[in-house]
Specification:
heterodimer, A: mainly alpha, 8 helices, elongated, B: alpha+beta, Arc Repressor Mutant, subunit A, three-stranded antiparallel sheet, 5 helices
Chain lengths: 227, 114
């Protein structure tokens, strides 16, 4: 095994860039495979071996791999979040859940007017909003070395898991608009004040469970992907 | 005929078995280990390896871990608890298949006879 020269590494990056891979996970795996393989051969065999790799990792192959990986990543996030939520109801974590429920119940029973209910509903939203910003920053920080190595690729490089997580982080904020404004539009003649406390409490509990589970998914996935 | 066509159906079992013996491995390492164990007789193509690894990961049989190696990031695969359980099931399935194949090719053959 030998250390590749900077010129050789540049050659490898150029070859991979032509494949226009946008998934950071696929890009790093292909890049590592190329280097690991080429390190095994002497300098005079470099071009021949690089050509052989190019025959295996074709543009079509890489894009098919990326397409499947992106699809699986989306399903994986969904599946993992469900698993995490289900874990909250397991015996080992029931105290944790009961604690959250008790706090939210107490706060919702203390709230007396519409402003306080809005504040209650806003608390998980703020957590989601802040998480989304931190997620974006960490994602950019993790991708920086890869983006630097593939500078000039001309297409955005992103983690395959970033978009499904980010979408999930912003989804409740959009859904909240529906929760808050839809009842007012539909039940124009009904006074909803007596139900506000229970409604706000329930929505807050769901949102908190959703937010905490998503943050846990992010923590889990940060060990396995570029997020 | 190429060996590659013959091992296509057992690629997942090979990967799981190798990961059972080695705590964690990366893609290229798997191809090299197979080549080394079979003295070059079987070569796992990259075209089949990575889709199989990603599929096993999506099925929850493998878990991954990224590590900084020199100036690049390397993705290591290892077995999950479900993956560990699946290895023995897949191994006995493959052994039974090989036994049946042996019986078809040589009706006189009995397990345990050389």
């Amino acid at each position: 095994m030998r250390q590749l020269t900077n010129i050789e590494l540049q050659e490898i990056r150029k070859a991979i860039m032509r494949k226009e891979i946008t998934s950071a996970e696929i890009l790093m795996e292909v890049y590592d495979h190329y280097i690991s393989h080429l390190e095994e051969f002497p300098e005079d065999k470099f071009n021949e071996q690089l050509f052989e790799l190019e025959q295996k990792f074709t543009y079509a192959y890489c894009h098919a791999l990326q397409f499947r990986f992106n699809k699986e990543a989306k399903e994986d996030i969904h599946k993992t979040q469900w698993l995490v939520i289900r874990k909250y109801f397991c015996t080992s974590r029931w105290l944790y859940l009961v604690g959250i429920l008790a706090i939210v119940y107490y706060i919702s029973s203390q709230a007396r007017n519409e402003q306080e209910y809005t504040l209650l509903l806003l608390s998980p939203m703020i957590l989601l909003f802040v998480s989304n910003i931190v997620f974006g920053i960490q994602n950019r920080r993790k991708l920086r070395p890869l983006k630097k190595a593939f500078k000039g690729i001309g297409i955005p490089i992103n983690s395959s898991l970033a978009s499904p997580i980010s979408e999930r982080l912003s989804l409740p904020v959009l859904m909240a608009q529906v929760f808050i404004y839809l009842p007012k539009l539909i039940f124009t003649n009904i006074d909803l004040t007596p139900y506000l406390s229970a409604g706000a409490g329930m929505v807050t509990i769901v949102l908190i469970l959703y937010t905490l589970s998503l943050l846990e998914v992010w923590k889990l996935k940060s060990k396995t992907a570029m997020v | 005929m190429s060996n590659n066509n013959l091992i296509k159906g057992s690629l997942q079992t090979i990967i799981l078995k190798l990961l059972e013996e080695n705590e964690k491995m990366y893609g290229y390492e798997i191809t090299q280990r197979v080549k080394e164990l079979t003295e070059g007789e079987i070569k796992i193509t990259e075209g089949a390896l990575y889709p199989a690894l990603h599929k096993l990961e999506a099925e929850g049989l493998l878990t991954t871990e990224i590590q900084q190696v020199d100036n690049r990031v390397r993705k290591y695969y290892s077995l999950t608890k479900n993956g560990q359980k699946e290895v023995s099931a897949k191994m006995s399935e493959l052994q039974s298949f090989v036994g049946n194949l042996q019986r078809i090719l040589d009706p006189e053959w009995r397990p345990g006879l050389a």
